[in-house]
Automatic annotation (TrEMBL):
Family that this chain belongs to: Belongs to the metallo-dependent hydrolases superfamily. ACMSD family.
Protein name per Swiss-Prot or TrEMBL: 2-amino-3-carboxymuconate-6-semialdehyde decarboxylase
Pfam families recorded: Amidohydro_2
Molecular function per GO: aminocarboxymuconate-semialdehyde decarboxylase activity; hydrolase activity; metal ion binding
Role, per record: Converts alpha-amino-beta-carboxymuconate-epsilon-semialdehyde (ACMS) to alpha-aminomuconate semialdehyde (AMS).
InterPro entries associated with the record: ACMSD, Amidohydro-rel, Metal_Hydrolase
GO biological process, one term: negative regulation of quinolinate biosynthetic process
Record's GO cellular component terms: cytosol
UniProt EC number: 4.1.1.45
Amidohydrolase-related domain: residues covered: 2-194
Species per Swiss-Prot/TrEMBL record: Caenorhabditis angaria
Keyword terms of this UniProt record: Decarboxylase, Lyase, Metal-binding, Zinc
Pathway per the UniProt entry: Secondary metabolite metabolism; quinolate metabolism
Assembly behavior: Monomer.
Amino acid sequence: MGFKGFEIGSHVGEKSLDHRDFWPLYKVCEDLQLLLFVHPWDMHMWNGRLDKYWMPWLVGMPSETAQAVCSVLMGNVLCDFPRLRFCFAHGGGSYPIIRGRVAHGYKVRPDLCATACSTPPNQLDHLIWTDSLVHDPKCLDLLISTIGEDHIVLGTDYPFPLGELEVGKVVVDFWKNDEKRSKILWKNAINMLQLDENLLKK
């Protein structure tokens, strides 16, 4: 049908993205070169201490996304499907700030963390993609150092309140170099979606 990819949630019921039930889906997506855009949902934080201050969206969503990233990295998904492309919303959530902690945990507790994948997560995270919706140039700097400037695409979260009020402003504020800006503003998306740039210009 010409689709380049589609959006999925960060889990299905109690099954995270490393669940073997999803292997047939991943195989088809890899064969058809389809991108999977992962957006957090159903954060299970509607009651208790996180039932104030919009915490499910401010804290729950970044945490949920980080859990999805870790499931993919430590669940052997990218090793079994090396051509499969995942793009995680909101700059990968809180994953960039806990990257070192996850890598350290994998090293010191392999009995708990290295049960499915023999490759450390910080040696695989350059294979994932994220959008740029981090709201802060300092956060964008951390994200770039985590997955690389070539694997970040423009994120807007339109039309939701947590979207950028001025689309692309964080990218523009971060980089004064037009060539660098262009990567995140549009060029990386062309590569991620495997589009023909020449056809887009016609």
